[in-house]
Prior knowledge:
1 helix, 9 strands, about 45% strand, mainly beta, nine-stranded antiparallel beta sheet
Amino acid sequence: MRITGRFGQVAMGASPETILGSINGWDLSEGRNYVDVTSFLDTNKVSVPDLPDVSGNIKGFYNVDPGSPAAGDSIPWLEAAEAPTPTLLKLSPDIQNTPMRFWEGLAYLDMKIDVQVAGAVTLASAFKAAASWTRH
């Protein structure tokens, strides 16, 4: 089944998790480096994969509507980015049709706020794994 990103979701923390509102995109990279293990008499370079480097981005709109779950106040997102400790992220591509399929793990977040006279105020976070991530 092919899906649209329309029902994607980003949540933070554990029981109860905080669903981030006003999010309009996320991406996740599990890029790997490769270690050269070429030996004498090999006819070409030989490599083995290193561990995945889990990282990604979250983007959305600045929202000052506290207590509005559908819209979602931006404060928990900002606080997670300002914290010196990692936060638990749960990234779901489709909570309506496949709610049990998601990626999650601890991550450090940073924050970029973009304010333009002719546009919406947006937020963007790059994140980096702080521990092992799992795909469910």
